[in-house]
Automatic annotation (TrEMBL):
InterPro entries, per the entry: Tetraspanin/Peripherin (IPR018499), Tetraspanin_EC2_sf (IPR008952)
Gene3D superfamilies assigned to the protein according to its UniProt record, in alphabetical order: Tetraspanin (1.10.1450.10)
Ranges that cross the membrane: 28-54, 61-85
Primary localization class, coarse: membrane
Keywords for the protein's UniProt record, in alphabetical order: Membrane, Transmembrane, Transmembrane helix
Keyword Hydrolase: no
An annotated GO cellular component: plasma membrane
Source organism of the structure: Machaerirhynchus nigripectus
Protein name: TSN36 protein
Record's bilayer topology term: Multi-pass membrane protein
Length: 168
């Protein structure tokens, strides 16, 4: 279990590099760091449990049980906090995404990240393609279109024009 958690934590940290412009808050990595710390603690606790079982130590097994109960309480607390604060995280991420979309010009590094995100997640805008109508890029181009990264991959002749919403 510790190895699995370590892998998940490392994967989240590695994936974060692709989306760090959208998650400007460095505390966004905190869950991944906590997962890795929990994995290390689980490994140590597993060793304690194995040693206590091997030696048939009542004190060691009692300690192991107490540690497992503390971990269970911590997991329940983390679940409750995640459930309670999910809307705040959603609002924060949407606000950050809107600010990154506002900086879109098709050339800067943030623009590349926006295009990459839209292509990988098969999405357009924060909620939908109409989010682009309020950006500076949309108003400056004057061609009534969204970036080509909004186009569906199957749509071969997609230009991003809003008169063809079925291709976005």
């Amino acid at each position: 279990a510790a190895a699995g958690l370590s892998y998940v934590g490392a994967y989240v940290i590695n994936t974060y590099k692709s989306y760090d412009n959208f998650l400007q808050d460095k505390y966004a990595l905190l869950p991944a760091v906590i997962i890795i710390c929990v994995a290390v603690v689980m490994f140590i606790i597993g060793l304690i449990g194995c040693c206590a079982t091997f030696r048939e130590s009542r004190v060691g097994l009692g300690l192991f049980l107490a540690i497992i109960l503390v971990i269970f309480i911590a997991e329940v607390s983390a679940f409750v906090l995640g459930f309670v604060y999910r809307e705040k995280v959603k609002t924060d991420v949407q606000g950050t995404m809107r600010s990154v979309f506002e900086k879109y010009d098709g050339k800067n590094p943030e623009s590349t990240v926006v295009d990459y995100l839209q292509e990988q997640l098969h999405c357009c805008g924060v909620k939908n393609y109409s989010d682009w109508t309020t950006t500076q890029w949309f108003n400056s181009t004057g061609n009534n279109s969204v970036p080509r990264s909004c186009c569906q991959q199957e749509a071969k002749n997609c230009t991003g024009h809003l008169d063809q919403p079925q291709e976005l």
